Amino acid sequence: MRTILAGVAALALTTSPATAREAEERPTVEEQISGGGRPVGANWARSPVIAQHGMAATAHPLATQIALDILKAGGNAVDAAIAANAALGLMEPTGNGIGGDLYAIIYDPKTGKLHGINGSGRSPKGQTLGQLLEKLDGADALPPVGPLPVTIPGTVDAWFAMHEKFGKLSMADNLAPTVRYAREGHPIAPVIGMYLDRALRAYSARQEVHPFEFDNARKVWFADGAAPEAGELFKNPDLATTLETIGREGRDAFYDGALTEVMVGYLQEQGSAFTREDFASHTSDWVEPACAEYKDGYELCELPPNGQGFAALQMVNILKNVDLSQWERGSPEALHYMVEAKRLAYADVARFYADTDFAPFPEELLSEEYGRQRFALIDPARATPEFEPGEPKLEGEGDTTYLTVVDGDGLMVSLIQSNYRGMGGGLVAPGTGFMFQDRGELFSLDPAHPNAYEPGKRPFHTIIPAFVKKDGKPYMTLGLMGGGMQPQGHVQILVNIVDYGMNLQEAGDAARFNHDGGRQPTEPLTGSSADPLGTLHVEPGIPAETIAALRAMGHKVKVVDNGIMFGGYQAIARDPETGVLTGATEMRKDGQASGY
After folding, report:
1. Of 144, 190, 236, 568, whose CB is crowded by the most CB atoms within 10 A?
2. Counting Cβ atoms within 10 Å, is residue 69 exposed (0-12), middle (13-18) or buried (19+)?
3. Residue 298 falls within a domain, yes or no?
């Protein structure tokens, strides 16, 4: 009896209200108890999702369900991807929206062809670099907020281009679920609630440095003076009206109609050089994906610049020269080679990647021979202090969402969409319900740089969808959102699957690294990088012995435990023989993979 009473007393003590000091000293959940066990697979990853008739993986469970509803209503994977993307613009405004840009890779089973679409927007045609520099008043870079970093929002045009080529349902039907959620409300998801709070604090701080109009944005997302919290119902009736108009009137409702007048008038009031003609003449481009074979029949496929996707292909061509599987996945050797390959590829990104209408891409960068040359520069024992870009023979030269949908016929969509930094540049045209992107911040102001600002030009872009072939057949859609994390994230997922035998979910849940720094596409061409070595950020799952060894090799290593900078992953693999679909989603987000 005495033992039982002691136990009851102890329970009473642990459940009584704690003082502030006791609460501060209390261990976190992770310190009190670790994860449980699993009957199959790694203990730190749940099972991948397996289905047959259709599957979607997005950063929000409601968006995933909308995609499946569209498939069940007779739509295909393109219809469902558009519907899910529209929903994410409402439900995950911290990562994307119709004020931003879109890229996609689509596999068409009817033709056996991969299609790529570049839905990124351009700078004002009537504004020169000299005129922009005058507005910057001595600043050496474009600001992250206000009118100057705004480029034409390309997402809506890309939706209609994809729909015209592949869609089955009407655009009104595809947008209807989001229109309904925007009017009736949806509960804020936990991670998105955290990002909304961060966004409000960030914009408030930036207003002190770069004053800009933010009242319209406050009315949409922060009307009560604070960010909506997890579980709180959120409505955006302005966005509902905008999407309903687009669904009813088509692409021109956004680019050459009454809505255009509202957007252009507002932007000009803020100091932008955009005209209605800039919007009306905007087009998306269908582009050719390129692929690089890694090993065991696996090929990684990416879209060409102005995006950074080819950096992942350069990493693949470097890493195929060493067998990473001879070491453990968390070993210093494996991480060292992967990080150095990333640094080599990104030195070329900073030098050569730009809008190919203005600066042709040197195809030699994707050759296996060039990959061998770059691999030879890696010191297996030490981090190289600085990597220079290569010298090909020139002839003439955060915050994103990724989603994927595959339908029962084998139509596969790999789609990424973003407003760039945070929720965008802070500007919201009256009554529209969406924020303009700040992608133009990634222009260089060095007139000699391929990525230099010019009228009617697309800036260097970070968002990239990916696709994987196996033995020459379509195998997997893949994406991992988050700025410069994306190419190195794509390669880490591929290495996890190919070299270390992980399933789709394990490959995404495994601890990652994010190397940041080194040469940047916004820096001047001449001179050394401001941060040539950069910092290797790793998650807590990387062993302490490995971190110590990497530091001894000369890497500047920092452990980051909140998952924010390591991206947001989704993937769907399709068995080419049975058509069975396997999906995975990101534990670092609110997402869901689901099928039927």
Report:
1. 568
2. middle
3. no
Tokens 């001879």 belong to 326
Q: Where is pLDDT greater, at 527 or 120?
A: 120
Is pLDDT at 520 greater than 50 in this prediction? yes
Encoded tokens for 23: 């609460």
Q: Which residue range forms the structural domain that includes residue 565? A: 58-290+391-595
**Whole-angstrom Cα distance, residue 283 to residue 109?**
26
Residue 252 neighbours by CB under 8 Å, 6+ apart? none
Those residues with Cβ within 8 angstroms of residue 373's Cβ, 6 or more apart along the chain or in another chain: 390
Average pLDDT over every residue of 344-357: 95
Whose structure tokens read 């023979």? 393
Q: Which amino acid is at 149?
A: P
Q: Which residue has the tokens 């947008």?
A: 175
- Is residue 411 a contact partner of residue 75, using CB atoms and an 8 Å limit? no
Kindly state whether residue 164 falls inside one of the protein's structural domains.
yes
Instruction: Specify if 71 maps to a domain.
Output: yes
Lowest-pLDDT range, 222-226, 367-371, 389-393, 559-563?
Answer: 389-393
Active site residue 64: no
Residue with tokens 């915050």: 399
Cα(559)–Cα(582) distance, integer angstroms: 32
C-alpha to C-alpha distances, 92 to 96, 122, 280, 435, 466, nearest whole angstrom: 7, 24, 28, 12, 21
Question: pLDDT grade, residue 29 (50/70/90)?
Answer: low
pLDDT of residue 3: 30
Split into its structural domains, the chain has a count of 1
Q: How far is residue 290's CA from residue 346's CA, in Å, rounded to a whole number?
A: 18
Residue 305: the pLDDT is 97
How far is it, in rounded angstroms, from Cα 512 to Cα 532?
A: 21
- Pairing outcome for strands 298-302 and 466-470: antiparallel
First to last CA, the chain: 54
Helix (H, G, I), strand (E, B) or coil at 535: strand
Phi, psi of 198 (to 5 degrees): -60, -40
Which of 58, 178, 242, 400 is catalytic? The answer is 400
- Residue 15 has a pLDDT of 32
Q: CA-CA distance, 342 to 97, in Å (whole number)?
A: 29
CA distances (Å), origin 381, targets 55, 233, 324, 333: 44, 54, 15, 8
pLDDT in tens, 162-171: 999 999 999 9
Tell me the C-alpha distance between 335 and 84, whole Å. 35
- Is 518 known as a binding-site position? no
CATH number of residue 557's parent domain: 3.60.20.40
- C-alpha to C-alpha distance for 460 and 308, rounded to whole angstroms: 8
Has residue 385 been placed in a domain?
A: no
Q: Where are the alpha helices (DSSP H) in 37-123?
A: 61-72, 77-91
Share of the chain above pLDDT 90, in %: 88
Instruction: Write out the two tokens for 572.
Output: 């769907």
Backbone angles phi, psi at 292, to 5 degrees: -130, 130
pLDDT on residue 237: 98
Amino acid at 575: D
Q: pLDDT value at position 518?
A: 86
